[in-house]
Amino acid sequence: MNPYFAGGGRWTASLLFLLGAALSPAQEIPLPPEIRVTSWNLKNYLYTNRPAQEGSSTRPKPAREQQAVVSILLRIRPDILGVCEMGTEQDLAQLQEALKAGGLDLPHREHVQGNDPDRHLALLSRYPITTRQPVTGLRYLLDNNEFPVQRGFLDVTVAVAPAYTLRLVGTHLKSRRDVPEADQALMRRNEAHLLRQHLDGVLAAAPETNLLVYGDFNDTRDQPGVKAVKGLRGSGAALTEIAAKDDSGERWTYYYPEADEYSRIDFLLASPALLPEVREAQSFLYSGKDWLQASDHRPVTAVIQPDDLAKKPRPKPRSAPASTN
């Protein structure tokens, strides 16, 4: 018999208790003081390791633009990075490795394959991804024609610590580019309504969810699509915009050279449960002059100061509203 256990069951139980306490994940993984979540449309981060496909009108992202993306992210140092216009899984892995080589290790990743063959939603995270629930098969009717949601919706939950999870839903709604099939604004509005239906389901099932919705909405805050995603004020499930600013107090995120127009079309939206933990004064838009070398969008970052879920008041359950589509 092992002499350490010769004292009988009482000593065995005591030793096992001490071992369990010493190895407790809750003690080993404390909540971080803050979480930085960055959302960025990378402007065709495509074909980084190979030439463009023959016959494709989409060119590879030049090496100098790739380097600018990496350089900016190494200055922002996000804990979670949600991106639009990512190329293949290999492109995402290339960005992940470039960031790691620069000292920013985001080992966990998600890549969503929607109907768009070239541009995808993707996410890199310092924290483990515990659930993946991509939404890629949604369709809608417009003028008696059926259309897919082009990029789908990214939906993951990350475990920041045993007592704290963060759910992230990423979107890249229909561009403002005119297409012959239908009115581009109506297409985008339909995609926005489908996104809101998905969010209603999430919050009806678990109102206490720390939910952050991010991405390129391709509309300004006064437009119906953005309002639809935010939801009805007073409903108990409305999302609140994190009004990040740059060093000059400006809030625009996108430059449209054809119109010489600056606008805010990229958003970070917080659920009622998450909102008290958002530090809006510390959240920010990237202010460096090199932003246009990387993309036609500027990255926007939310700073979250997490609280233990056990200490948070839980919103009352609610029913999902009927479809408005």
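Above is the first protein from milestone M3; the second protein from the same milestone is given next.
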Amino acid sequence: MADYQQLKHEFHPVFDKNSQILILGTFPSVKSREQHFYYGHPQNRFWKVLAAATKKPLPITISEKKQFLLSNHIAIWDVIQSCEIIGSSDSSIRNVIPADIPGLLTQTSITTIFGNGNKACELFEKYTVPALAKFPELHKIQKLPSTSPANASWSLERLTADWQQKLSPYLIFQ
């Protein structure tokens, strides 16, 4: 059985001053940590779902993914800055130091926050909401079904439909 590792988030959030939607994960998976970018596991459906939900071409490179997010006014980050974790297991997360989401919010136009899965929402409620005194309108996080391969009960089509329904009122179509 693998042991706990004390890890620190090693890459920056993707955002700019025009970002209006924030999508939060928990903490980068092993594959994402290896690639130094979000949703790097080849079986994670994040990029496919988001491209379909926005009706845009699937970005492939990290550069394309960043441009895709910014052009759609979407920011992404994780709730956790550092923690102890076994591999990529969200259920093993302990000794959390939260990311500075309030600091990010001061640099953006974010009006809506989504969580990619239950655990991201739980961690946001526990660690971030208490620090959001300046942002009372952002105390609520909207839950999206996880795009993780561990969420095998959700097909790509079902994920896409759910994400599209929840995101579309907040997307700026160009």
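Note on the second protein: The chain is about 30% helix and 20% strand.
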